[in-house]
Design brief:
Layout: H1 4-9, E1 12-18, E2 32-40, E3 44-45, H2 52-57, E4 66-71, E5 82-85, E6 88-100, E7 103-112
Antiparallel strand pairs: 1-2, 1-5, 3-4, 4-7, 5-6, 6-7
């Protein structure tokens, strides 16, 4: 069960894009809208020194400026999806269950797309 304070923090609505499956020639199309109303906490920059364990957990090897947020969802969210928020696009680099006792959320690690 998610606490009321965490629900209040999940006040931002984002959408997601996903690449369609490859066609018969093995080519993928451009990303298309997948989800339109995913509720998340603020998308904040991660300090890579403090969140080194996240980088290891999700095997992020390239030098990225990382961002993070949490969401409560049973929707289909997968690594490689593009999170769209306020006209900015973020690539989902890592996603997993974050269990903090009574609260079970999805932890999302993102990198801004340039």
């Amino acid at each position: 069960m998610i606490s009321n304070s965490m629900k209040r923090m999940m006040r931002y609505t984002v959408s997601t894009k996903r690449r369609p499956a490859a066609d018969a020639n093995g080519k993928q199309g451009v990303p298309v809208t997948h989800l339109t109303s995913l509720k998340v906490t603020p998308i904040d920059p991660l300090n890579t020194d403090e969140f080194h364990n996240l980088i290891l957990r999700y095997n992020i090897q390239e030098p990225y400026r990382l961002f993070g947020c949490y969401c409560e969802t049973t929707e289909d969210v997968a690594i490689g999806d593009i999170i769209v928020w306020n006209g900015r696009e973020f690539l989902l680099k890592g996603c997993g269950i974050w269990d903090d006792g009574a609260e079970t959320l999805y932890e999302m690690v993102l990198s801004e797309m340039v």
